[in-house]
Specification:
single chain, 423 residues, alpha+beta, OB fold (Dihydrolipoamide Acetyltransferase, E2P), 4 domains, 4-stranded antiparallel beta sheet, elongated
């Protein structure tokens, strides 16, 4: 039953193919013809790039904070004598701001007084020790005489015990005096440490630049109170060197495999129309981010910034040059996409042609009123042209890139635009 049904279907398909061929032939004979558009094969240079968007970042940024709490009283002066502000150039050690130091100055005075008091206590303990040592010497001599008199039976037992007790007490007092001296010395060391701490807190009231650079952000104003807690409040953001910068580029996971360290890069910024900058890939970070199921990797691009033209945080339109061909045989991509719309367009001797490799690309060459196929190997592409690796094509030869309908009445027309019959 299935065989009986399939025979009519095959017959209908064959009739349809024959009708299409006859219709195309009739169409051509009645003033309608297909005009093939061609392009010339030529040698040239081709560059394969990956496009992405990134942000210009300073290579090294120092966040200057405050270690003490207080009121911002004044700002310092930059190297030109102007008040520190956005864009100020500062040297290492330049005063950036001053915090109200009245509380810390009072703490320093108290710490100094405590040091002096503890030093006096140390002297007093040392003097007391000297007295105890003198008393020990006296009681030791009396105890020695008591021992001589006791052997001669010239000293009462009660007096003998008294001299002995006085000697033991004096010796114990000397030991206690040594401990008092050590305690006084330790108190002095502690007071000295508190003095140094108070001095450091007072010094922290003067905010100085730790590096030479340019202030790209000032986050406080005069009269503002900063509070130092577990995290130091940020007062200034300093870029250490703007002569060298980085671009942090977000690259799609489909392209990041072709980006390696050292890959040359060209980029533009909208604020400098018509100007192109160069750089190289310095690092491909491994900490990817995912946004709406799209995985992106951050690539660091190093670039020079002579004259400080480039500004931090500009948007950069980046192109990674991942491949380049010099003096290669180029063909427009349209030639690889086009194929004949009917069998009648193909040269009769090529209608049974089959490519030796199914993965090979095919271009069509014009041969009189017909076209014939040519199997080629496609190489790199830049989106407009493709490198062909073949010995069968040479400079100046033409390949078909498309077709259009041409009539004697209306000239060439796009075959994809619907035609309406005039009444």
């Amino acid at each position: 039953m299935r065989r009986l049904l399939s025979r009519p279907i095959i017959a209908i398909c064959l009739l349809g193919i024959v009708a299409a061929v006859l219709g195309w032939t009739w169409h051509s004979r009645n003033g309608h013809s297909l005009t093939l558009t061609t392009a010339t094969v030529k040698h040239g240079d081709l560059v394969t790039t990956i496009s992405a968007t990134g942000t210009l970042e300073p290579i090294e940024v120092v966040d200057v904070g405050a270690q003490v709490a207080g009121l911002i009283k004044a700002f310092g002066k930059d190297k030109n004598g102007n008040t520190v502000d956005y864009g100020s150039t500062v040297e290492e050690g330049t005063v950036l701001a001053n915090i109200d130091d009245s509380v810390y100055a009072a703490d320093l005075a108290l710490a100094r007084a405590q040091v002096e008091q503890d030093k006096a206590g140390e002297l007093s303990a040392a003097a007391g020790l000297q007295q105890m040592k003198a008393k020990l010497t006296q009681t030791e001599a009396e105890w020695n005489r008591a021992q001589e008199l006791s052997r001669s039976k010239l000293l009462a037992t009660a007096d003998f015990d008294t001299y002995k007790a006085n000697f033991e007490i004096a010796r114990a007092n000397v030991s206690a005096g040594d401990a008092a001296v050590a305690q006084a010395q330790a108190a002095t060391v502690q007071a000295q440490a508190l003095l140094e701490k108070a001095q450091r807190n007072l010094d922290f009231c003067v905010i100085k630049s730790p590096v030479k650079g340019v202030i790209i952000d000032r986050r406080v104003n005069i009269g503002q109170t900063v509070v130092a807690s577990l995290n130091a409040p940020s007062l200034f953001l300093i870029a250490k060197d703007l002569m060298k910068m980085q671009i942090w580029v977000a690259v799609n996971e489909a392209d990041v495999g072709r980006v390696v360290v050292g890959t040359p890069v060209t980029f533009t910024c909208d604020t400098f129309p018509g100007k192109q900058f160069t750089g190289t890939v310095g690092k491909v970070r491994l900490n990817a981010t995912m946004t709406q199921n799209v995985v992106m990797y951050t690539v660091e691009v190093n670039t020079e910034n002579p004259g400080n033209i480039l500004l931090p945080y500009l948007t950069a339109n980046v192109r990674f040059v991942v491949h380049g061909e010099t003096n290669a045989l180029l063909v427009p991509n349209a030639a690889l996409r086009w194929s004949p719309s009917s069998l009648a367009q193909i040269s009769p001797d090529a209608r049974s042609w089959k490519a030796a490799d199914e993965r090979a690309a095919i271009v069509w060459l014009k041969e009189g009123d017909f076209v014939k196929p040519l199997s080629v190997k496609a190489g790199a592409t830049d989106g407009a042209n493709t490198v062909l690796i073949t010995d069968a094509l040479h400079d100046g030869e033409e390949v078909v890139t498309g077709e259009s309908v041409e009539t004697a009445e209306s000239g060439t027309k796009n075959p994809f635009i619907p035609q309406f019959r005039k009444r």
